[in-house]
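Hi R.,

Here's the input for the 5-amino-5-deoxy-1-O-phosphono-D-mannitol complex you asked about:
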Amino acid sequence: MCGIVGYIGNNDSKEILLRGLEKLEYRGYDSAGIAIMNDNGVHVFKEKGRIADLRSIVDQSVQAHTGIGHTRWATHGVPSQLNAHPHQSASSRFTLVHNGVIENYDLLKREYLQGVTLKSDTDTEVIVQIIELFMNDGLTVKEAFRKTLSLLKGSYALALLDEEDNETIYVAKNKSPLLVGLGDDFNVVASDAMAMLQVTNQFVELMDKEIVIVKKDEVTIETLSGDVMTRAPFTAELDASDIEKGTYPHYMLKEIDEQPLVIRRIVQKYQNEQGALTIDPEIINAMNETDRIYIIAAGTSYHAGLVGKQFIEKIANVPVEVHISSEFGYNIPLLSENPLFIFISQSGETADSRAVLVEIKEMGYKALTITNVPGSTLSREADYTLLLHAGPEIAVASTKAYTAQLAVLAILAEVTGKSRGIDLDFDLVHELGIAANAIEVLCDSKEEIEAIAREYLATTRNAFFIGRGIDFYVGLEGALKLKEISYIQAEGFAGGELKHGTIALIENGTPVIALATQESVNLSIRGNVKEVAARGANPCIISMKGLEMEEDRFVIPEVHSLLTPLISVIPMQLIAYYAALHRECDVDKPRNLAKSVTVE
Ligand code: M6R
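And here is the predicted structure with 5-amino-5-deoxy-1-O-phosphono-D-mannitol in place:
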């Protein structure tokens, strides 16, 4: 969602800000802007559309060593030049960029800004106007900033410029991610380390409700009550090449192809010197002490959670419930006596999941976060973290994070099971190796999969995915992948449920992609395929070697039956990718979506 960058130093800030914003494009946005400040004042450039549109309106002749930039994903007010950030106060003295949602902005507007004509529909403008108001009442800028922050309810990451002081950027955050990056004679601000890797890999974490005064040679962190905090920087372990597309046409394709490597890396990271899988004993204790695990997640991570439940229950014998985070907060089920919460989140920033984490922490329960981003909010705020080690995932459609989540959940289940005296009848390290090889085979079958996408999905209005058991969960993920990047109305259904309503949707030629990777339900899912075919559907059966039949359209290599989701999801991802290409959609940046969903 919205992204923030800032630079203060000796170099011209324009290009650094624009390049930083380009690196944040993956988060999703619909307008962008920068404000740069020199002795002549603040110059604001903002535009609806892409960074390339913004670039074309930036006056290259203006040189400025201080600046802030923003990508906006509309929440309050339509995507437009007027609603794009930065926003300015009435006199234009203050300029602000904001990520997050101010829940009480309307109340604040009515209470403080009766006499002010607002130029935009945003909650952000309310903040910057109030800062100026308080400053006009005689407060210093820092005091006005602090007082304003104390009024805000909701989430924010803020970077503020004061036209009368081009040596300072004021920064603060609450619930939304924001980092300060350190350099020699310059400092930067960024929603995500990736944005500023171009100039530094040294970053300082900020805590909620701190005020940070960023100068080119000094960063001062204060609590809201004015106590100065010292905090050591960390090194962002990212390689610039991790965030480049290289020779790939799209990040999504690159990330699909990275999956065998990611699985092998995860196995390595979770192996001890003897080669046995290992996990922090504190986490295993928590897994053993609980009487029920509650997995909380959204979107693709939720689908990984559904498969994770199978792993944990079947391998470690611990009961698991899986919940959609945006629902859980309003609809908390009757909890067991000693619950353990597992948050699954690629980004570690999903606001819906974070809201649940805050709530269950207040209730005194323990939480484990499984995430791809070390230092992310969900990781920091949970008791324990397991990392996915998938490398940055840039495409909005999650691919390698899903398979990484499954691999880590399988390892967690195995190590927990072992600690409870349950020995698997198979060697997980070996089976994950076989799975990685099988993914490689599938990634080499792109032409065949592209042909499926062309045949079934090039022009269709809708498509259905069916499966039973673990295949149903992969079907849900296949449908999500397809709908989010190709805009085909796609839904996943449990094969047995068709006759209870869904089958009414089947028309002549409706594509139905059926997964058949489980021996126990092989015949019943094929029975469901016959039912839809009899009603005119165009079925496409994807089965696994050993279970295949003559009518199957595609056969995936054989892997352990519990691990099939790691493999069967690959054709789902590739089918979605090629369908989106055929329909000329923006594969990496689908409309209306953001990579990191930081608003509830
Ligand atoms: O970062 P998270 O895993 O918490 O994100 C959750 C969902 O927003 C995410 O999985 C989303 O569904 C993906 N775009 C799906 O490809």
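One thing worth noting: Residues 298-301, 345-347, 350, 353, 396-398, 480, 484, 597 surround 5-amino-5-deoxy-1-O-phosphono-D-mannitol (CB under 6 Å).

Cheers,
M.
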